[in-house]
Amino acid sequence: MAGDGCKNNDSGGGSNQEEVQIQITGSSKAATSSTHEALLLTSPTKHWQWWLMMVVNMFFLIAGQTASTLLGRFYYNQGGNSKWMSTFVQTAGFPVLFIALYIFRSKTPPIQTTTSNPAPETSVTKITLIYVALGLIIAADDLMYSYGLLYLPVSTYSLICASQLAFNAVFSYFLNAQKFTPLIFNSVVLLTFSASLLGVDEDSQGTTNISHGKYVLGFLLTLGASATYSLILSLMQVTFEKVIKRETFSVVLNMQIYTALVATLASLVGLFASGEWMTLHGEMHAFQSGKLSYVMTLLWTAISWQIASVGVVGLIFVVSSLFSNVISTLALPIIPVFAVIFFHDKMDGIKIIAMLMAIWGFVSYGYQLYVDGKKARKTSVRVEESS
């Protein structure tokens, strides 16, 4: 996920006068985010610009994630069966991110704030190894998601994916020093029960011809993918705080592009090593809605994932990585509604209860972030007044 556009950023170090730069000290992401937010809210113009950026990025994330999930299910429903192709398109559209990188670097006026001395330049070898390691983990994560979407009804799949917020709380506690408050604990419990209900509900298999064994495998792989995704977010946060030691829009975007490049190459290796590439021609001709539909489905799935990636990067930069993950989880209870409309998924009582519990868990987690942000803003104002 991340590709650069100028040599000053390809190692993650150095400074750039054409981008907003927030120096990170210690492990306080909340303080960094609130400092950035306080900077943007210093005038009425900056205030509405900040809200506009947040709303636009939320739309990109929710729309991109919803569209990509539904298109992924459509691919399988119409006769597609290549798990590696499904994995490949999740990251193959990463060149689209260069557009966002170019627009931001061209349009954003220079604003800079520092809370410490400039961070030393990160070793190219070190940052390359990190990109490769994260890219390979992302490829494995995408493959698990592909299997999960193949073996599960899309409504069940999306509700299980909501458990990523619970995993995020756990990994953030151990890796990012996030406090485990009663509200976050409540969210973890609710999301855990929500996923557990779907795991034991035999009716969640829906109307597909998938066997019970494959359903269980899909459930476990989707749950594992959700945990892995949350681990990836925490590892990226550790990289920003401990290795790169700064978090600008282009640095975050570079992380997205380079790790996506590695994941895409790994998916291609898997596609050819598994022999699935030999079935793609026949798969395209057998696609129920036609060859053109086959190509367009894969193309727009890839684009949709990258639209979601732009939203993820934007929210990380404008607010925080935690908020970005919360918003990505918000889309998951919405997807079952579209699944019922487009794919006629069965929406029984257990699924409805699981969806309500997932929404309750999301609200609980989101309110905790609101409380934390409010405290951080008050602290920032006091520090500003005292200085």
**Structure annotation, total helices:** 15
Estimated helix fraction: over 70%
Task: Label the structural class.
Answer: mainly alpha
**Largest beta-sheet characterization:** 2 strands, parallel
Task: State the total count of DSSP E strands.
Answer: 2
- Helix-strand topology string: EHHHHEHHHHHHHHHHH
Low-confidence stretches: 1-42, 108-116
Explain what the structure shows.
It is a single chain. By secondary structure, the protein is mostly helical. It is 73% helix and 1% strand. It has a two-stranded parallel sheet with strand order 1-2. The radius of gyration is 21 Å and the shape is globular. The two termini are 39 Å apart. The N terminus is likely disordered.
